[in-house]
Amino acid sequence: MRKHVSRFLPLLLALALLTAPAALAVGEDVPGLPQASLTDTAALDLINQVQLSAAGADVSAAALTGDALPQSLSADDLAGVCSANDTLVRVTVTGAELKAYLEWAAACYNQWNSGDIGISFQPERPAHTRDVFAGVDYELDLSKPAGERVQTVRFRGAPLSDDQQLKLVVSSERYAVQLKGQSLISGEYDWSSRQTLGALISDYLAGHAAPAAADGNWSITGVDLSLDSAERATLVALIRSGQLETPYAKSLNLNHYEVKNLLASANNVKLTDLDQFGTAASFADADGVPYFRLRDLAFLFTGSKDQFNVRWDGKVVVQRGQAYDGGVLPLPWSIPASAAAVPPAEITVSVDGADVRVSAIAVDGHYYLSVEGVNALLGTSATVQDKTP
């Protein structure tokens, strides 16, 4: 089942911000999103070139069967990500019909809204319906509603007119189910392949080199993903670390109240003797001292010399030097304002079998400690950092 943003978001930033690649224009830095639907790729360029060559067509359209790109541009790897067992058909279409087909393909995206940190997709449009075209140059303006997104379609360097005749090659399934089934075109196919797409790819690569890079004939426009935003960087890094689910069907939006609350309740903690830091659920008490969820810190410290495990056995039990083996807790959208008014209480923590008293605040069944309290309890040297490195 595909991951979607749930009511709660997990917690850890960890090393991701230190190792993250630069964000790209349409959100390719958000892991888990289908790259072939965000930017032109050599894989789909090659598949389309195979189809154009086999059919002697002007324009080709193809899609991958899943979100993953092939490991390589070999025939075997390509066969694993496309409809390799399907055959092809060629049909004459008008420029207006091709634009209607382009609009159908572009309807797979959700409309971009100001504050969205990425591009998201209609959940009822699986990967194999997100067609990419070759033989024409075009732009998709995702700030527009479905049906109004296709911009500046050009064929062989000139604007494509509505009455222009073109030979289009597609899979036989796409022709039957969408082009004819949804009345996108009126013509009948005049050629069909005897070989499957997989066989055609294999034959083509026997005599041609795979493209070194995508040709960039299409692009997404009309979006501003706040690439320079520190808040966006935090959210993307949480996704990249694997602790935050990919916002596939609905983008996280920096203007949304819940996202603002989530970011406000997340602070960074750093181990001063290691180049390692991460985000944990936190709140400031009445004196402005931040309190952090103990299990978040156990998860954050894992892999360092100061790692510790924590569990409940009638009281809090801590074992120093052991990696945290508990589950990742969700980062709450917000922490009750009343938590700040609760004075810390002394609790007993078993540390390596010895009882230690430490001040803590309980929120929603979990103990929160100040960094100073954690350092006193465990002999660690953590500090509170700014939200971004």
TrEMBL record:
The keyword Ribonucleoprotein does not apply. GO terms for biological process: nucleotide catabolic process. Residues 37-172 form the 5'-Nucleotidase C-terminal domain. Keywords: Signal. It comes from the Bacteria. GO terms for cellular component: outer membrane-bounded periplasmic space. Residues 1-25 form the signal peptide. Pfam families: 5_nucleotid_C (PF02872). GO terms for molecular function: hydrolase activity. Coiled coil: none annotated. InterPro entries: 5'-Nucleotdase_C (IPR008334), 5'-Nucleotdase_C_sf (IPR036907), 5_nucleotidase/apyrase (IPR006179). This is 5'-nucleotidase C-terminal domain-containing protein.
